[in-house]
Amino acid sequence: MKKTISILTVLMLLLSTNLMAQKVSGNYDKATDFSKYKTYQFVGWQKDSEKVMNDIDKKRLREAIENEMTARQFKRVESGADMGLSLYIVVDQKTSTSSYTNFYGGAGYGRGRRMSGGWGNGYASTSYTESDYLQGTLVMDFLDESSKDLIWQGVANGTINEKAEKREKSIPKAVKKLMKKFPVDPVK
């Protein structure tokens, strides 16, 4: 079941310190010459993705992207760019289950045991838990603005950490991790 929530929660997934299972991937057209691109512009959100994001986190996300692109010597412009950037966010409600069986041993088997049949009086206890969590996905698409062809797509997904106080640091870290898959490295 898809659920619309605040991006602050979505972006927490993208690199909170406790997100060991976060996955990022990038894919691009190998024939694309990225050296011909110098500028980019934000072309919008896909399919109402902006509705899950508050204004503060929109700004944080855009600043994080701008910092990563500036580090790669790309300049953001309002119009007439070489590349367009669009963002897409999906949030799914998930449930995890776990169980644990603890066996408490008995008297054992063999002579000298006081039980008929030889087996002891052990028993087992099993605990079962279900936990609801949110799985979030952020997709970044870079398009060649003249042809409108997709030239790079980056995808990050993982479990969302809903602690709001970590957003300010986690959003830039998430974007940095995702942008490591971009075919142009930061200039040192």
Summarize the structure.
The chain is α/β, with parallel strands linked by helices and 188 residues long. It has helices at residues 7-12, 55-71, 167-179, and strands spanning 23-28, 39-45, 75-76, 83-104, 123-144, 150-159.
Descriptive tags:
188 residues; alpha/beta; Double Stranded RNA Binding Domain; six-stranded mixed β-sheet; 19% helix; elongated; disordered N terminus
Question: What are the SSEs and their pairings?
Answer:
Blueprint lengths: L6 H6 L10 E6 L10 E7 L9 H17 L3 E2 L6 E22 L18 E22 L5 E10 L7 H13 L9
Parallel strand pairs: 2-3, 2-4
Antiparallel strand pairs: 1-6, 4-5, 5-6
Helix pairs in contact: 2-3
Provide the residue-averaged pLDDT. 77
Helical proportion? 10-25%
Kindly, what is the distance between the CA atoms of the first and last residues, rounded to a whole number of angstroms? 43 Å
What structural category arises from helix and sheet content?
A: alpha/beta
Spans with pLDDT under 50 lasting ≥5 residues? Answer: 1-21
Strand fraction band?
35-45%
Order of helices and strands: HEEHEEEEH
Major sheet size, sense and barrel closure: 6 strands, mixed
Principal-axis shape:
elongated
Strand order of the largest sheet: 1-6-5-4-2-3
| Number of structurally distinct domains | 1
Number of helices: 3
